[in-house]
Every structure is written in C-alpha cells, then in structure tokens.
Design a protein that fits this description.
Elements: H1 13-46, H2 50-78, H3 80-97, H4 104-121, H5 124-134, H6 139-156, H7 158-168, H8 170-191, H9 219-230, H10 234-249, H11 251-264, H12 269-294, H13 299-316, H14 324-336, H15 342-387, H16 391-408, H17 419-422
Length: 424
C-alpha cells in the first residue's frame, strides 16, 4: 500500500521515520525486558521455579532472534509498515492474554511464543532495513541511535515496572507493557511511509533519485536463499559467532538475571532495576558514540575493544562486594558497552553483502545474538538453581567475551558479495 500524503521537513522527514522506529524498538525491547522483573513476583504468586520462568524468557529471546531474518524478508515482501503494525498488534494481544494465566505453559505461549514472534519483527533488522532505505549518509550514527533504543528499552523501563510489581503485583506489569505496544499502532500507521519515493523524496544524503527494484515476493526464498549464499563466506560465520557471544553476555545474562542476582545479595528489586536503567542511559550514549566511531574507524578494532572490556567486567562483577559504589561503577562501564557492537557489525555485513541483502544477512547474524541470549537466560537460571549462586555463569560469559574479541580481528573486510546473493 503506497502512502500518497505529502510530508513536512523535506529530506529531513527521514529523521521522523527514524523516530517512529526508535519508539517501536524501545517498546519491543521493553517486552523482552519485562520477564526479568516478573521472575520474583511470579515465583511468589504461583510457586514457579526460576528455571521454569527463565525457560519462558529464553523461548521469547530465542524467537526474538530467529524471527529476525524472516521478518526482514517479510518487510521486502509486504512492506515495513504492515509488518510493524502486525507485530505490534500481536505483542499487545498476547501480553494482554497473559493476565489470565494460571499454568506455566500459559507463560510459555504468551510471553514466550507469541510475544517472541511479535518482538522478533520489531528488532534490530527493522532498524537495519529502515536505515538502508532512508539514509545514504550518517548510516552508522542513525543505526547507533536505533540500536541504543533496544538496550534503552530493555533497561530504562525496569525501575517503573519493578515499582509496579512491588506495589501491585505482576498483573499491572502485564497491562502496562501491553498498553505501550498498543499505543504505537496508530503512530506507525500515520507517520511511516514505505519508502522515500512514496512521498516524493530521496533517501537522506542521496544525490540521485532512489531506484526501486521489483519486490521479491517469495518469503522463504528470500530468507533461506540469502542464508545459503551468505553462509559460504567466513565473514558471515565470524559475525554470527561474535554476535552469539554478544547476546550471551548482554540481555540473556544481565537483562534476565541481574535483578535476581542482586536479590541474592539483599538488594531490593527497585534499586536493582534502577541500576539497569542507569545502564540503559549510558548505553544510549555509548551505542550512539559507537555509530559515530563506526563511520570513521575500522569496525573490527572497535569490536575487539568492546568485547574485550565487556568480558573483563563480567568476570569482575561476581567477585565485587555488591556495594552501591561497585555496582554503580559496573553499571556505568557496562552500559557504555552494552550493545555498542551493533553499528560495527552492521557495517561489516553491509560491506560484505551489499545494501539490498545486508538486512536479511544481518537478520541471521542477529538470530545468533538471540540464540546466545536465550542460551544464557536458561543456562544462568539452571546453574543458579543447582549451585545457589551466579558465579559460574558470569565467569563463563566473561571468558566468551574475550574469545569474541579475538574473533573480531579475524573478520575479512575485503569479502565480496557472492553471485547467488545478487540474483534477483
């Protein structure tokens, strides 16, 4: 469906589009963050163990990533606008339905299955698709901002959600998150054109009119065919491996278990959620700065620094005294590095696979991120149940961060697009 209305701001309308996507990514990330707040309230209300609740969070995170490449293909087939609105509807309905859950499988279906599918359509691949369509210049900076929204949404809403859970229980948390998704539906319908050319514009920074190629309609062919071609390059596997570790060391571990870990040390939920919110604020700065740096420096060296410092910080945390000062120091440092890895990773993917196919390829790379996150969410919960503390999962995660730092330097920036990917 082509939008015929003219829009204000001229070429700068691309920033309005980026703003809408920023809010959508914020909401989807908030959906994925909420299970971290619900672990303790659901345990008290139903007597469910942490590994059971962690399994539902892991399922949601896993689908959040695995849906990504198919969502990128769906955006090519039916459009970004329709895909986004459908995903927001699915999230709002499934999360609302969880207000009546009484069994663990209800949690798996609502917060795991359906919200995972919906949030997977409103993930990093959405930002990559929109950046490649609407911007020619400042791509790294804009992708940094959009990426920051995913971590900011994961972390910034947690103090409010934790306060709601503390005073009203888990159901008000459910209604709050569902309402946030529902409110974005009319905004996306009104403000999001499909392409710049639909409203008579060029992509921001372009000197020539956009050339619209005929859309490829076969969803599975787009997603799986692109994977088959990309997987022939070592660049793809290095990007996939490092992003797997990125997920393993961020939202799967810290995003899901940090509040519960602090609870083990006598720190109230609201205070722990406040520390996560502080990480979100610093992430907004760190990831945006990472986008600016990506436009100027070798992205492989940036990834080496990001993963190396993250690994060291995770190894240090369980040995700290969990005082306000040490946790604040960790929150500031770790927040700057939370997902600063995304702009350099997208740039490397775009260099290797081209503007058209990079969003789908990046969708598969992002799937690795969420598989890693899902693994950490379940792995940490299971080890906590068995050992009674979080020492082992944090040390293991820190070691994987150091491994990712080494892998980043092995990525070949001179990789070129395979013919199979260029085929229409």
């Amino acid at each position: 469906m082509t939008i015929q209305r003219t829009r204000p701001f001229g070429q700068k309308y691309a920033f309005v589009v980026a703003g809408v996507i920023f809010l959508a990514l914020l909401a989807a990330a908030g959906v994925r963050a909420a299970p971290g707040v619900l672990i303790l309230p659901l345990g008290k209300a139903f007597g469910w163990s942490r590994d059971t609740i962690s399994l539902s969070a892991a399922l949601g995170i896993f689908l959040y990533g695995m849906v990504g490449p198919f969502a990128a293909a769906l955006m090519q087939a039916v459009g970004v606008r329709r895909t986004l609105i459908g995903a927001l509807v699915l999230m709002a309905v499934s999360i609302s339905a969880s207000a009546w859950m009484t069994q663990p499988w209800h949690l798996m279906v609502t917060w795991g299955l359906f919200s995972g599918i919906g949030s997977g359509c409103v993930a990093i691949v959405l930002g990559a698709t929109v950046v490649n369509r609407w911007f020619v210049t400042h791509r790294g900076l804009i992708m940094g901002l959009l990426t920051a929204s995913t971590a900011t949404g994961t972390l910034a809403f947690l103090p409010a959600l934790a306060a709601i859970a503390e005073h009203g229980g888990w159901r008000p948390v459910v209604w709050t998150v569902a309402a946030g998704c529902a409110l974005l539906i009319p905004l996306a319908w009104w403000l999001l054109p499909e392409r710049p050319s639909d409203i008579g514009l060029r992509p921001y920074g372009a000197t020539e009119d956009e050339v619209d190629t005929a859309p490829r309609r076969n969803l599975l062919s787009i997603a799986l065919g692109t994977l088959a071609a990309a997987s022939k390059q070592r660049t793809f596997w290095f990007l996939f491996a490092t992003f797997f570790i990125c997920g393993f060391t961020t939202n799967g571990l810290i995003g899901t278990h940090f509040i519960a870990m602090c609870g083990d040390h006598g720190i109230p939920e609201v205070r722990a959620a406040g520390l996560l919110a502080m990480m979100g604020a610093f992430d907004l700065v760190g990831t945006t700065l990472s986008g600016w740096l990506t436009d100027r420096y070798d992205p492989r060296k940036l990834l080496f620094v990001y993963y190396g410092l993250r690994g060291l910080s995770l190894i240090w945390l369980p040995y700290s005294d969990f005082s306000f000062a040490s946790l604040s120091l960790f929150g500031m440092f770790y927040g700057l590095d939370w997902i600063a890895t995304v702009p350099p990773t997208l740039r490397l993917a775009t260099e290797a696979f081209g503007d058209r196919d990079a969003p789908v390829v990046f969708g598969w790379v992002a799937a690795g991120h969420q598989v890693g996150a899902a693994s950490a969410a379940f792995f940490a919960g299971a080890l906590r149940t068995q050992s009674g503390n979080y020492l082992q999962p944090f040390v293991v995660a820190g070691i994987t961060g150091l491994i990712a730092a080494g892998l980043a330097l092995m990525i070949n920036r001179r990789a070129r697009l395979q013919p199979a990917l260029q085929a229409g």
